[in-house]
Request: fold
Amino acid sequence: MEELVIEYGALGLFISAFISSTLAPGGSEAVLTYLIIEGEDPTIYLVMLATLGNTLGAITTFYIGYFASTKYPPRNIDPMHFDKANGLIQRYGSVALMLSWLPVIGDVLCLVAGWLRINFLTSLCFITLGKFARYFIISLLLD
Reply:
């Protein structure tokens, strides 16, 4: 991963953030931290770039759920965290997507929101807010 960051810098951060927000594991927080410490790009630029990549990854997961729901209704599948994510979405609606930054359950929240066809624009707003808050707090901790 370090080679990706060194060679691609901010683009590597965007790619890492995107991958980290799909169902694949990643470490965009470490990449962001490294780039902020290096100081070659403004911190707010890196925070916004990480937020954009991570949000686009979450929206990808959202649409995977959306399209999967046509063939596999939620009652036919029981992934490890599906029930917990489903309960949060059912109880709090798209507001629960502010937690989409959390490891494991965050990806499943986006998948379930798409599966349940929660309003896309509201989902996008809450996903973006949660993702931005996480990266912004990391940047504040490094100052």
Summary: Residues 2-142 form one domain. DSSP finds seven helices and no strands in the chain.
